[in-house]
Amino acid sequence: MKQKTFPSTPDTTTPEGPILEHGLDMIFREGVRGFTVESLAKDLAMSKKTIYKFFPTKEILIQTIFQYITTVIAKKFQKIHKLEINPLDKFDTAINEIVKTLNRVSIAKISELKVRYPQVWREIEAFRLARRDDFLTIFKEAQRQGYVRDEIDLELTSLIFMQIINDVFQPEFFIQHQIGLKETLLAYKNIFLRGIITEKGLKHIEDKI
């Protein structure tokens, strides 16, 4: 399955790097509604003209900011794959990285993004679905080592895993049920993982509790 690719992480030593990094912090703190090019320029001691030189419109700037953070997350997944640890621990580390990012922003601010910039939201959803291959790699490694049941179809399993996240983990779901992103994702992780692991895998998980 061919997945959408994303740009490489910008060099923070270039003018674009600080703009994207600080812009992301501002959006996480204030939401897209409260985010303005004027306030960003003031914080960076930079003229609006300089920012618009790289990002002609606010929408393009916001789109690039979220492409930046998704690329950072993708690179973290690449590092996780290279870790010499139990594949179940890789799975846990990957989920924790997602939780760490989600904890930086409120549900209300995520909802603002979805409503005001639907194209950016669609790109985020495409990125989430693309992580299917990352989890498939982890599941395959776990199966080879006897932590995931042999009869499990891992292609289908990884597809279902990410599709549920994309369909359920929408801002309106959390607002309607008044539940948090972190606890929901961790609960989903535990329920899902316990449905595919072997006794050996279960022992590894319970030994860490």
Could you give a quick summary of the protein structure above?
This protein is an all-alpha fold and 209 residues long. It has helices at 16-34, 37-43, 48-54, 58-82, 87-102, 107-116, 118-130, 132-144, 154-168, 171-177, 181-194, 199-208.
Terminal CA distance reads 36 Å
Number of helices: 12
Overall structural class, as computed from helix and strand content, comes to mainly alpha
Largest sheet: none
Q: Give the CATH class of one domain.
A: Mainly Alpha
Overall pLDDT score:
90
Strand content: under 5%
Any guess at the CATH architecture of one domain?
A: Orthogonal Bundle
How much helix is in the residues? over 70%
From the spread of the alpha carbons, the general shape counts as elongated
Number of E strands: 0
Q: Which spans have pLDDT < 50 for at least 5 consecutive residues?
A: 1-12
SSE sequence, one letter per element: HHHHHHHHHHHH
CATH topology of one domain: Tetracycline Repressor, domain 2
Describe the structure.
Residues 1-12 have low confidence and may be disordered. The protein has a domain at 69-208: Orthogonal Bundle (Tetracycline Repressor, domain 2). It is elongated, with a radius of gyration of 19 Å. The protein has helices spanning 16-34, 37-43, 48-54, 58-82, 87-102, 107-116, 118-130, 132-144, 154-168, 171-177, 181-194, 199-208. With 209 residues, it is mostly helical. The two termini are 36 Å apart.
